[in-house]
Write a structure and sequence with these properties.
258 residues; alpha/beta; Rossmann fold; 2 domains; four-stranded antiparallel β-sheet; 8 helices; 12 strands; globular; binds magnesium ion
């Protein structure tokens, strides 16, 4: 069982007080903002935003938001000043005012458009299923669909991608993610930020609640990994109950750091 973060307080305090520069990477949905039936309605509590802002204001603290949302959507939803942002599972990275897209992403665009066009009528017929086209990737959301419709969604999505070498399918919580078949993920985006900011893995942390966040956890063998919620099985270093717990941790971290 992963220990709750409060059981790791002493080790965390030591880490916060001894690393001159730290990077805290963080997912958005399910980690900072509670999961909601429709992704458009997701919203981060004011308390959480304030905790993130307080942490960013501390010397030597960098905060990187890395989400499956498109970067524009993420920036608008999170609305945190001074954070680093990566969207589309890291395929889009904003750094020093420039947004770059991971290699191979643009090339997969036509294949993605074709697959979405093919899937649209079938998905529209299943109540509760909707397609989110995030330009670089797409999400097939089925959180609102009846349980007995899940198999059909999976079958149709798999069939649409069967002979499409340019794309790959990744599962997330009640979502199928259709992404370019590049070796790029949240972990690579986190590493990209760490390299630019010269942060060693031991000075980095990542908080996430979903399968796609494990890519980031893997980049931090000696850093801090925080799993939020109960749905995903992994061996993170500390556990957080829910996004409210995340707010508590971030507030505490800001207090220790400052
Ligand atoms: Mg999430």
């Amino acid at each position: 069982m992963i220990p709750h973060w409060t059981e790791q307080r002493e080790a965390l305090r030591h880490w916060l007080l001894t690393q001159p520069h730290i990077m805290i990477g963080c997912d958005f949905d399910g980690t900072l903002a509670p999961l909601v039936s429709h992704a458009d309605d997701a919203c981060m509590a004011e308390r959480t935003r304030a905790a993130v802002q307080r942490l960013i204001a501390k010397p030597g603290v960098m905060f990187a938001l890395i989400s499956g949302r498109s970067i524009a959507d993420l920036q608008q939803k999170a609305s945190v000043d001074g954070a680093l942002y990566a969207g589309n599972h890291g395929l889009e990275i904003a750094y020093e005012g420039v947004t770059t897209v991971a290699p191979g992403t643009a090339e997969a665009g036509p294949a993605l458009r074709a697959v979405l066009e093919q899937l649209a009528p079938a998905m529209a017929r299943i109540p509760g299923v909707w397609i989110e086209d995030k330009t670089c990737s797409a999400s097939i959301h089925f959180r609102l669909a009846a349980d007995d419709a899940h198999a059909e969604v999976e079958e149709r999505v798999r069939a649409a991608l069967r002979e499409v070498a340019a794309l790959r399918l990744r599962p997330a919580k009640r979502i199928w993610e259709i992404r370019p078949a590049t070796e790029w993920d949240k972990g690579k985006a986190l590493r990209w930020f760490m390299e630019r900011c010269e942060i060693p893995t031991r000075a980095a942390a990542f908080l996430g609640d979903d399968i796609t966040d494990l890519d980031a956890f893997r980049e931090l063998p000696d850093g801090w990994t925080f799993l939020v919620g109960d749905e995903v099985k992994c061996d993170a270093r500390a556990w957080l109950r829910d996004p409210e717990d995340t707010a508590e941790l971030l507030e505490w971290m800001a207090g220790v750091r400052g």
